[in-house]
Amino acid sequence: MTDDFYRRIGGIREPDPTLGKNVPRKQPSAPQPGEDQQPSPQPEPQPPPKIRRQRVVLAEPSRSPSSLRARVELEQQTSWGELLIKDLIKVQLRTGLLLTALVVLPLGALPLAFFLSPDFAELRLIGLPVAWLLLGVAPFPLLFGAGLWYNRLAERHERDFVDMIEN
Amino acid sequence: MQLNVWALTGIALVMVVTYYLGQRSSRFASSTHDFLVARRTVRSRRNAAAISGEYISAASFLGIAGLVLKEGADALWFPIGFTAGYLALMLFVAAPLRRSGAYTLPDFMEARLGSTSLRTLSTWFVVFIGVLYMLPQLQGAGIALATILPAPAWVGVVAVTVVIAFNVMAGGMRAITLVQAFQYWLKLFALAVPTFVLCVVFFGSNGAGSAGGLSQEAPPRFTDDTTLTVETDVLLRVDEPTSVRVPADSPNVTVWSPGTEYPVAEGTTLWFPARSDVPVVSDGALQNADWLRPAKTAEDMLGTYSLILATFLGTMGLPHVLVRFYTNPDGKAARRTTVQVLLLLGLFYLFPVMIGALSRMYVPQLLVTGNTDAAVLLVPSQMLPGVAGQILVAITAAGAFAAFLSTSSGLLVSVAGVIATDLLAGKVRDFRLAAVLTALVPAGLALSLPVEDLSLSVGMSFALAASTFCPLLVLGIWWRRLTWTGAMLGMCVGGGLVLLAVALNAISERTGSWAPWFLQQPALFTVPAAFLVTVVVSLGTARRVPDDVNAVMLRLHAPDPLGFMRDRAVARFGRLDERPRSSRGGGRHRK
Asked: Which of B234, B367, B436, B488 has the smallest CB count inside 10 Å?
């Protein structure tokens, strides 16, 4: 998985570290007042040996005005915002249908194949009936693999979408 | 059946641990938010274990092995479908459903389509499916307890009902999450250990069971002179002339011939001589060769497709499965949870199939008595006489009770949540009241209705869920032009057809089993019918597309970091008297 910052914490949502920060920008947009308030991480001085109270601030993720405008446009359903979200829905649905086909076609063909070809249904591999292996063991890795792949694709689409909005 | 002290201890231990964990984690439950969705803060790993623990019901733990014993290869589609249902759920429902911020399924319907009558209808379907699903769990508890103890069936039903009712009343979803996660691992252990041990015994005995190896063509055989008590009304058939005494102490021997079906009433005793073939109940596979081969006839094949459709699409409509997805922090976590569920379920379902195959070789008498669901509990003591076998029985019995407890407590939470928020005022007090009422109804039904095959009645709930909620969820999430009229008619048509099939099936069982396959597994027709009606009626009532459809779609599909997700306001339901500790409420951003 490319985004191991999610893995590290057991699948619990943390704010995407690329969000609202100007790290991955391809072209630096015009300097905006909002970004000035985000100091770049400066090297921390060596922590003193004794334990000090650390101050943790939970704030709203600061966003640059341009991303805020994009959000507002999305929310107000301007033609542009509507088109964007429609595209996202379409691409997610297409991914889902593709993976469904990937799983259902091989699995769905099995009963028909067993019915049409009794030889196939009675085939044996080192003494074990192939039909039992195909039905009792093989589908589970297939299903898990499909789930893993879909998860990766869907998260990539969402990340792309967020990147697009932020820019 | 002699008293098995080990098994009794195992069951008692599971009950006590369940009760303890439930009470311990419910100390922190104070608000409606805790009771309904555990504050939406369940981590994906624990949530995945809890979902799997809740999902592995009596039908999975006992029923699959029983069906494999009886029907052979075709029964292998049950575990596949039970698992694949989660893939469908993940691909089309999980993340958007979580982002909708609803508390219950009717909540989602109202948020999406803005109709209160649709909400009421789906409330009733949730309650109905929940009770229908809880029924076999409680009956399974009765069967299991009667199999290993000299106790009447009602003891198991009552014990399970009491434990889950107390846990759910004490802490709702907050209480049962930890319990169910624990019970998944317990169940996996309780089936994996006996399977490994029995496989070692099996290969140690040169790969042939006491009733003959599986590769021989003939039916399984009795090893000794055998006397059996038939536990339900059955129709038996044989493959070659078999001598039998009916009842077992009658002086004269009758000969059963192939090609005839012999009705045997409940409570009848039968005697078979050693080395005779084991008769099989009429809908089971008689010969091992047939048993090993999937999809022998066109009916088998179509029935299999129908089952595939019901289980693939039915999982997403089960209320207790959906309610667990609302406990995830956000949509992305909901998807991650599902991936882990696919792994956990795939791991578990390897074992009941193996136990089912072993039981064909070692306890073929279950094919005569019709009590195939008890296979998991009886194989260990049959294969391993003595204390070792009894300990294995105790382990599987404990696992079976974990299955009854976790599934029925999940169902109880989801149904009680729906009743509390939709029919009552939605306060914590209402939730507790709803939990008591919901626990009493299925318990009463379980005590009064006859017992069917566990997996089959569960299969019917899947068909019902697939033909009612699945079209609504899938179309509601991905199709803008859905209207509440279309949704309502689709739900009525799909649900009505399944209920008709259930009714005809029940009539046919009392009047000579004339029901064709599509009445026993109707999803192949009812699901497309429900989809078709929903789409056609929605297109016909295009004026009623809700005005806010674009806003709702945005909320369902916009990625979580953009922050469009709105959880349903807690304030609408009121709280317990003391305020929750976080005054910001919502708990949306909390880990």
From this structure: B436
**Does A134 score more than 70 pLDDT?**
yes
Flag if A162 and B43 touch (Cβ within 8 Å): no
Using a CB-CB distance cutoff of 8 angstroms, which residues of chain B are in contact with residue A16?
A: 561
**pLDDT tens-digit map of A34-74:** 444 444 455 555 555 566 676 666 655 555 555 666 677 77
Partner residue facing A12 (CB), from B333, B347, B558 = B333
Q: Determine, for residues B342 and A143 on separate chains, whether the beta-carbon distance falls below 8 Å.
A: yes
Query: Can you tell me the distance from the alpha carbon of B207 to that of A77, in angstroms, rounded to the nearest whole number?
Result: 68
Residue among A93, A112, A122 minimizing CB distance to B301 = A112
Query: Are B73 and A161 within 8 A, CB to CB?
Result: no
Distance CA B161, CA B405 (A): 8
Q: What is the predicted pLDDT for the residue at B515? A: 74
Domain boundaries, chain B: 5-205+290-452, 226-277
Is residue B351 within 8 A of residue B192, CB to CB? The reply is yes
**A11: closest CA of chain B, how far (Å):** 6
Residue A85 to residue B343, Cβ atoms within 8 A? no
CB pair distance less than 8 Å for B337 and A11: yes
- Is B559 close to A162, i.e. CB distance below 8 A? yes
**What DSSP string describes B110-147?**
HHHH--HHHHHHHHHHHHHHHHHHHHHHHHHHHHHHHH
The alpha carbon of residue B340 is apart from the nearest alpha carbon of chain A, in Å, by 8
Using CA coordinates, name the residue in chain B closest to A141. Answer: B346
**What average pLDDT score do residues A144-156 get?**
94
**Residue contacts between A and B (CB atoms, under 8 Å):** 171
B234-237 β-sheet, strand order: B262-264, B234-237, B280-281
Cβ-Cβ contacts under 8 Å, A127 against chain B: 215
**Terminal CA-to-CA distance of chain B, rounded, Å?**
51
Q: Cβ–Cβ contacts within 10 Å for residue B164, how many?
A: 31
- Evaluate whether B184 touches B49 at the Cβ level (below 8 Å): yes
B562 vs A148: CB contact, 8 Å cut-off?
no
pLDDT tens digits, one per residue of B354-364: 998 888 888 88
Which of A13, A63, A82 is the best substitution to test chain B (most B C-beta atoms within 10 A)?
A13
Higher pLDDT, A89 or A12: A89
Question: Phi and psi for A55 in degrees, rounded to 5?
Answer: -95, 125
Closest approach of A47 to chain B, Cα-based (Å):
27
pLDDT at A30 over 50: no
Closest residue in A to B96 (Cα) is: A89
Residue B248 token pair:
């077992």
Q: Which of B76, B298, B343 sits opposite A115 (nearest CB)?
A: B298
Sign of dihedral through CA atoms B201, B206, B210, B214? positive
Cα–Cα dist B517/B494, whole Å: 18
Instruction: Name the stretches of chain B with pLDDT < 70.
Output: 1-3, 206-219, 223-224, 231-232, 282-286, 451-456, 513, 567-591
pLDDT at A19: 52
Q: Which helix (H) or strand (E) holds B447?
A: helix B428-448
Please name the member of A121, A141, A154 whose beta carbon is closest to the beta carbon of B293. A121
Return d(Cα B173, Cα B175) in angstroms, integer. Answer: 5
Burial of A48 (0-12, 13-18, 19+ CB in 10 A): exposed
Domain definitions of chain A by residue range:
66-167
> B591: which chain A residues are within 8 Å (Cβ-Cβ)?
12-14
> Residue B269 forms beta bridges with which residues?
B229
Which CATH number does the domain B5-205+290-452 belong to among 3.60.21.10, 3.20.20.140, 1.20.1730.10, 3.30.70.1560? Answer: 1.20.1730.10
The interface predicted TM-score (ipTM) is: 0.86
